[in-house]
């Protein structure tokens, strides 16, 4: 396969991963690489990234696919720079590796760990990359039962190398005679952690390269490329995904507040000022040809958030708390209420900045369980209307966050309708696919006709689309 065909396949893979690359950008990428040449692989990566990645969130998928389609070597071969084609013909795949004896494995493991410790201490990226290749070759594979080739495993490599067990020795070497516990130790720990994470990423990249050789590019691509951050479903988000979501939520909260801000549309400004209008009419013989209005007083709206924090939507509950915490800075007053089968106000828990701490305090201290701890939207809405009758008013935007899975219990549609009628706006963000609404114990049909709009909100991309649809009212 020549470089043109490989570039075309690479662009197709980016599009399959959700990275939008136009034909014009592909032409620009080819021109950029023509200017820098193919001899320097990192320069090729930079040229492609500059012309194809329009947003930072595309970069992880781009780097993963670039390493698959333009690998630095093949098999265990050593790179040949003379041919000027990085990743295409660099080295040759090695044959079936010889099984090492237990004594040989122990000696090799000790030698590689000693080299790893020194490379981590020096911060030598080239040495770390070479150690990742050697470690994968030595410990990362196992025969694939009933199939040709081998299977590759990241955990086998990391278990053999155990980089985390080197932290104490690295700290001692970095700090020397300095006292522990101070700023120097914190900086050293952070530096070591960053280098270890970098080595682990190199191991993962090497494993993906070997898998692509064994199984083919497209088969590896499907499992290697993670969804873009704005396409990660809230119900399946990991802790690492939630950390990344935190960075995206705050700009979205500002835009949501802008869309929900109440605006009075009484003439060009505020209400009619009768006294000033009569006074102005004296100049025209008492005929009020020009009306006078009081100045408009802009204000931030109030927000009430009702969050389902039951176990079935635990990851979505983490996201809703993130969103509510971000919205708190954009509204004049934000009140948050959590519920499972009863409702309690959780606004007091949003003062912190640590999400895990907020969730643990809510689980320990909030009164969210009334009967059996299973979702009961009907009883939760009844308790909310009874305990907090003044929470929702004409300046309030009501935002409900939950999947409406009610365990076949009463919906309490009447008190919920009164709440929505009292509010200026009432929106419901549902993390389930729309095709699931109304199936099983879903009560979406009972609630969707009451709120202004029930929106499918499974990821940040859909939340952003919902915010863009909202018009200032």
UniProtKB/TrEMBL annotation:
InterPro entries: UCP010256, Uncharacterised_CoxE
Region feature Disordered, mapped onto this chain: 79-104
The protein, known as: VWA domain-containing protein
Species per Swiss-Prot/TrEMBL record: Frankia nepalensis
């Amino acid at each position: 396969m020549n470089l043109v065909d490989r570039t075309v396949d690479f662009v197709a893979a980016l599009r399959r991963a959700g990275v939008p690359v136009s034909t014009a950008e592909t032409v620009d990428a080819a021109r950029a690489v023509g200017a820098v040449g193919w001899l320097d692989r990192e320069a090729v990566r930079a040229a492609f990234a500059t012309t194809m990645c329009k947003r930072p969130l595309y970069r992880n998928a781009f780097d993963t696919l670039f390493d698959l389609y333009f690998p630095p070597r093949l098999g265990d071969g050593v790179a040949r720079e003379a041919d000027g084609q990085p990743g295409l013909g660099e080295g040759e795949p090695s044959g079936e590796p010889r099984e090492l004896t237990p004594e040989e494995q122990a000696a090799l493991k000790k030698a590689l760990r000693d080299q790893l410790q020194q490379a981590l201490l020096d911060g030598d990226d080239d040495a770390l990359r070479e150690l990742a290749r050697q470690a994968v070759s030595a410990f990362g594979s196992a025969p694939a039962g009933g199939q040709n080739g081998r299977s590759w495993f990241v955990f086998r490599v990391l278990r053999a190398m155990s980089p985390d067990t080197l932290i104490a020795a690295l700290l001692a070497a970095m700090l020397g005679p300095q006292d522990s516990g101070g700023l120097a130790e914190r900086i050293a720990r952070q530096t070591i952690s960053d280098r270890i994470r970098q080595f682990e990423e190199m191991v993962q990249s090497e494993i993906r390269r070997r898998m692509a050789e064994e199984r083919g590019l497209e088969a590896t691509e499907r499992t290697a490329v993670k969804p873009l951050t704005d396409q990660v479903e809230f119900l399946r988000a990991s802790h690492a995904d939630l950390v990344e979501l935190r960075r995206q939520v705050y700009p979205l909260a500002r835009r949501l507040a802008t869309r929900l801000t109440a605006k009075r549309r009484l003439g060009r400004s505020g209400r009619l000022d009768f006294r000033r209008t009569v006074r102005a009419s004296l100049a025209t013989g008492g005929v009020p040809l020009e009306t006078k209005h009081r100045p408009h007083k802009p204000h931030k709206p109030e927000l009430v958030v009702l969050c389902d924090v039951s176990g079935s939507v635990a990851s979505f509950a983490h996201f809703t708390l993130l969103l509510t915490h971000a919205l708190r800075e954009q509204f004049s007053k934000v009140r948050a209420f959590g519920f499972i089968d009863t409702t309690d106000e959780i606004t007091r828990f949003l003062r912190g900045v640590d999400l895990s701490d907020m969730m643990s305090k809510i689980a320990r201290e909030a009164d969210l369980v009334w009967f059996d701890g299973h979702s009961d939207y009907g009883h939760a809405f009844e308790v909310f209307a009874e305990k907090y009758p003044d929470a929702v008013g004409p300046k309030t935007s009501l935002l409900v966050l939950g999947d409406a899975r009610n365990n076949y219990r009463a919906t309490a549609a009447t008190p919920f309708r009164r709440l929505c009628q009292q509010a200026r706006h009432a929106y419901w963000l549902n993390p389930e696919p729309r095709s699931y609404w109304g199936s099983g114990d879903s009560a979406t049909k009972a609630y969707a006709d009451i709120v202004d709009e029930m929106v499918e909100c499974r990821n940040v991309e859909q939340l952003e689309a919902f915010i863009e649809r909202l018009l200032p009212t």
